[in-house]
């Protein structure tokens, strides 16, 4: 299996996905913005459709359009401060409407189905370069803005008082989310992409550790989820995206069960 070039390409991309998605996801989850990841993952479909229609690289199209939608969400927060769900509905309507209109027009130069469900066969060398570039830039940006983003994640108002440039960092973070989504599309697929952003973080949070330890375990669980999903889906001949989502849920359930069993054993031992 590993002798096939497409599997080597898929594993290369999966490594970047498994590191980048939890790094972005942990800040989304802590800020209770996990549904933004879901909204932007659907927005990426419109970017893919635009890229395919114009004959450009669909990952680049997804990155550009998703970045615009992420910036639009941040812009609309100034008008709908207490209605985040309404903002997401507006952006979702815009992006899904754009995607459906383009796809149904019959003007696409390629099939968009592989991007919806994920496919290990469609990862090209150019995609690998795009993924590596976006992934490295995103991780370096996260490292540079690490402390400011932690402030914002835990208390945005206090961060504002402390002099953190919240609006600017939020716009930058929107672009980082767009980057994480666009690099993950080929393997995971649009429909279940948000699961790779949120579920490894949700699993790591069950360990009840500090921020850094939670981030490390988020990446560990992400690697487990994606690699198991990639290899097992190859042998089952199913789309890797959907199966990876199932693996993510299964790992979360196992951790929850282990936590409950440990708690029960601890209670018995205490008696």
Description:
The protein has helices at 5-30, 34-54, 58-76, 84-104, 113-117, 125-144, 146-154, 156-161, 166-188, 193-205, 211-236, 240-270. The chain has 271 residues and is mostly helical. It has a single domain (5-199), classed as ABC transporter involved in vitamin B12 uptake, BtuC (Orthogonal Bundle). The longest helix has 31 residues, at 240-270. The radius of gyration is 19 Å and the shape is globular. The relative contact order is 0.16. The model has no long low-confidence stretch (mean pLDDT 80).
Q: Tell me about the largest β-sheet.
A: none
CATH-assigned homologous superfamily: ABC transporter involved in vitamin B12 uptake, BtuC
CATH class: Mainly Alpha
Q: How large is the radius of gyration? A: 19 Å
- Give the low-pLDDT segments: none
Secondary structure: number of strands: 0
**Mean pLDDT metric:** 80
The total count of helices amounts to 12
Could you say which overall geometry the principal axes of the C-alpha atoms support?
A: globular
Could you say how many structural domains there are in total?
A: 1
Estimate percent helicity: over 70%
Order of helices and strands: HHHHHHHHHHHH
How big a fraction of the residues is strand?
under 5%
Question: What would you call the structural class?
Answer: mainly alpha
């Amino acid at each position: 299996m590993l002798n096939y070039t497409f599997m080597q390409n898929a594993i290369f991309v999966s490594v970047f996905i498994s590191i980048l998605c939890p790094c972005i996801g942990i800040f989304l989850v802590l800020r209770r913005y996990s549904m933004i990841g879901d909204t932007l993952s659907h927005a990426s479909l419109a970017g893919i459709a635009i890229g395919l229609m114009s004959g450009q690289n669909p990952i680049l199209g997804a990155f550009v359009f998703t970045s615009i939608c992420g910036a639009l969400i941040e812009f609309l927060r100034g008008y709908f401060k207490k209605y985040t769900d309404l903002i997401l509905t507006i952006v979702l309507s815009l992006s899904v409407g754009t995607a459906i209109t383009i796809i149904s027009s019959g003007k696409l130069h390629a099939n968009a189905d592989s991007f919806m469900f994920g496919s290990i066969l469609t990862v090209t060398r150019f995609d690998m370069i795009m993924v590596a570039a976006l992934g490295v830039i995103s991780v370096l940006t996260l490292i540079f803005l690490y402390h400011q983003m932690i402030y914002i994640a835990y208390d945005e108002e206090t961060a504002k008082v402390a002099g953190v440039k919240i609006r600017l960092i939020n716009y930058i973070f929107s672009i980082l989310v767009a980057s994480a989504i666009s690099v993950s599309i080929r393997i995971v697929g649009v429909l279940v992409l948000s699961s790779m952003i949120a579920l490894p973080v949700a699993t790591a949070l069950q360990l009840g550790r500090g921020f850094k330890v939670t981030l490390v375990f988020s990446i560990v669980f992400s690697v487990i989820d994606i690699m198991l999903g990639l290899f097992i889906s190859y042998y089952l001949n199913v789309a890797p995206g959907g199966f990876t989502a199932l693996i993510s849920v299964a790992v979360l359930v196992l951790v929850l069960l282990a936590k409950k069993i440990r708690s029960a054993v601890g209670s018995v031992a205490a008696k």
